[in-house]
Amino acid sequence: MNKKIGIIGAGNVGSSLAFTLATKAVCSHIVIKDIRENIVEAMCLDISQASNSAKSHTIVTAAKEAKDLKDCDVVVITAGVPRKPGMSRNELLLINANIMKSVIADIKDNCPNTIIIVVSNPLDAMVYAALKTSGFASNKVIGMAGILDSSRMSHFIYEKLGYGAGQIQSSVMGGHGDDMVPLTNYSTVAGVCIEELLNKKDIDDIVQKTKNGGLQIVKLLETGSAYYAPAYSTSRMIESILNNEKKIYPCAVLLSGEYGYTNIVAGVPVMLGINGVEKIIKLELNEEQKNQFDKSVLSVKELTDVLDKEFF
Ligand SMILES: NC(=O)C1=CN([C@@H]2O[C@H](COP(=O)(O)OP(=O)(O)OC[C@H]3O[C@@H](n4cnc5c(N)ncnc54)[C@H](O)[C@@H]3O)[C@@H](O)[C@H]2O)C=CC1
Ligand SMILES: O=C([O-])CC(=O)C(=O)O
């Protein structure tokens, strides 16, 4: 497909994403930008060679300067610091907001019509920072987290059941933090709700494991955070956008009245097509889920209030 993807930040997530997109031949050109120029050069060679091995037409090049981002259809921002054991994602707020500011300036100058996918943490606040500093329309700035959190939930459902791999559909809403809202009544195995297959204790355990999914990997890795599932989840968002698939995924977007909130970024199910976010889907939440969603939104708002006061 004759499309160009920019990836800013060639660390663990950025490189895994470039590898996935190139070997799946999702686009014709991937351009990668990072402040670590030698790393980017090595990565471009390595992934280009993998692309040839996969008989993919995707070419992968290093952005020597910001203008190499020109004509990108989608730019993914993974630039930023990951947390280490003992840290919460929120502690990355100001350091990553500063990185976001410089990256957005490059995007605005060189591909002002692109769609931005934000991956850097704390995710919802970084989407807000990208929106405010770019001035882009809200359909064009989208955060990746809900697909990842849902994939984690599916994995933990499989662990409990011991069957159904590949047939599990999970749904997680809210901010990408400790207060995220796994929706057990919207989670199914081959169409059967997990509430019919598992007892309450097992379901509560799945919910807790999902919320801690990122932390579990941070503790084991010791040097950074997860990257294969984050990269793969991002690739699915890109495919839906480039191919105009109109698939529905939970993504972090700016709300304008949906779910009762305005000027707040939170994870909700959205339809992704050639225009980015083409529709926000309204799910019926029960009282408890509404309360949990409100709490999660409040946690995001605490961070964006800091950005509003100290950053913009
Ligand atoms: N939304 C989500 O679900 C997830 C978010 N993350 C977040 O994504 C970010 C990246 O994670 P990793 O790739 O594991 O980190 P990493 O440390 O491996 O890579 C980050 C890269 O950003 C680069 N960078 C820093 N400042 C830059 C700038 N101004 N311009 C271009 N590149 C710059 C660094 O040189 C480094 O190569 C972190 O903030 C992490 O917390 C990670 C996993 C999941
Ligand atoms: O846990 C982290 O810091 C990285 C992340 O957001 C995730 O893997 O969910």
From TrEMBL:
Give the record's GO biological process terms: lactate metabolic process; tricarboxylic acid cycle
In this protein, the active site sits at H176
Is-annotated flag, keyword Iron?
no
Indicate the family of this protein: Belongs to the LDH/MDH superfamily. MDH type 3 family.
Under the heading NCBIfam families, the entry gives: PRK06223.1
List the PANTHER family.
L-2-HYDROXYCARBOXYLATE DEHYDROGENASE (NAD(P)(+)), L-LACTATE DEHYDROGENASE
Q: What is this protein called?
A: Malate dehydrogenase
Q: What is the lineage of its organism?
A: Bacteria, Pseudomonadati, Campylobacterota, Epsilonproteobacteria, Campylobacterales
Underlying gene: mdh
